[in-house]
Amino acid sequence: MLSPEEIKARAEAAVPGAKLDIVPNDSPSAQRSLLVDASHAVAVATFLRYDVELRLDYCSNVSGVDWLDAEISEKVKVKKVVDGVEKEVDEVRKTKRPGYLEAVYHLYSMDKKHGPVVLRMRTENRADKNHLPSLTPVWRGAEFQEREIFDLYGIIFDGHPDLRRILMWDGYQDHPMRKDYVEPDDYEYEPTPHDEVLEKAKRQAAAEAKP
Amino acid sequence: MNPEPQAGIDEGLRSELSKQGIFTTKLADIYNWGRKNSVWPLQFGLACCAIEMIATTMARYDLARFGAEVFRPSPRQADLMIVAGTVTKKMAPQVVRLYNQMPEPKYVIAMGACAISGGPFKQGYNVLKGIDRFIPVDVHIPGCPPRPEALIHAFMTLQQKISDQTFAGPNRPRHLDPAAPSEFPVPQFGEHDLVPPNNRNVWQPPARARHE
């Protein structure tokens, strides 16, 4: 199995103009993934599928992820003159990262018996620029899962053969798995509310106490 | 069966006649006896509870002993709707439509935690918080899923309910009450939820227990 660096080098050499990033993973599994730019995604995916070394012919899973706008703070060492002496001082630098939607593909090879290779694509933002190229033409098994992501996260997959909602009905306006989804206000009394349900119970009790 | 004395005939005389091989009964009793022992369920299942419902009909539990062995594939021929499983909001209009297509007299058993309350999915976005929001339910069975014995118990409860019904009065079956509705509005798919989210003519929100 090739390392992410080797896959990145091979793919960038094979697909002119493609730019892959390696996404680090701090968790114990340390499973790094490849972030591919949307404009070359289909070409890179085709390469991953048919490359003699990789032959990633099986797309086992496609998931959606919703990343809200976030403020990332990182510690940076800055040289400063304090009391006439130059010192290294830790400074917290905050950067704002706009939110985006992400589609994650887990790829395996039945032929070479290796995997997974994790492939990611990100939209530009969460509102209007939510298009990604569909990888269903490359892996047919991604069809229903891309429909599910379209349904629950609102990513529009260009080139998908049949992009319709799959779990909710046509005409439904929301994307329920997004983090800012507001569910209909239909809380009913529960004898043992807890966590989020407890908040709803308190809100209902307050609303009932008013009149 | 019926602990009340037979109307119009002395209980002692009735007992004496039965010793001589003459059986007396009320028309309502024999009518209900026939109805309760030929309840034909509608053959449909929504989720895992349907597996238990199928097990109930097979040889080990044998629902046929109660006269309900014929699961009809058409709502036009069915008397009983066993709502066995999770009713998603996307499925709810079809369940109500099937119920509307059944002829009177018709009964509903809501089987399992999901069908009676939404169950583990109650706080989710896609599951109806109980089918009793749209159609009248005669027997609720808790359980996830309920065992076949529970379904048989529910069925016997329904049989008791049928045999207790009278020709006239408030306890009469719906098909003998011209004012009683036989069809219920089918909810429409809205932009955020079903429209309406429940039918207040058949269901009211549960009363809140107050802890002052």
Can you characterise this structure?
The complex is a heterodimer of chains A (211) and B (212). By secondary structure, chain A is an alpha/beta fold. Chain A folds into 2 domains: 4-66 and 101-180, NADH:ubiquinone oxidoreductase Nqo5 subunit (Beta Polymerase, domain 2, 2-Layer Sandwich), CATH 3.30.460; 186-211, no CATH class. Helices cover 22% and strands 33% of the residues of chain A. Chain A contains 4 helices and 9 strands, in the order αββαββββββαβα. A 5-stranded mixed sheet of chain A has the order 1-2-7-6-3. In chain A, strands 4-5 form a two-stranded antiparallel ribbon. Chain A has a two-stranded parallel ribbon with strand order 8-9. In chain A, β4 and β5 (85-97) form a beta hairpin. Chain B has 2 domains: 1-36, no CATH class; 39-166, Rossmann fold, CATH 3.40.50.12280. Chain B contains 6 helices and 5 strands, in the order αααβαβαβαββ. Chain B has helices spanning 11-19, 27-36, 49-57, 92-101, 112-117, 148-163, and strands at 80-84, 107-111, 139-141, 188-189, 194-195. Chain B is an alpha/beta fold. The termini of chain B are far apart. In chain B, the strands form 2 sheets. Chain B has a 3-stranded parallel sheet with strand order 1-2-3. The mean pLDDT of chain B is 88. Chain B is globular and about 70 Å long. The interface between A and B is medium-sized, with 22 and 18 residues.
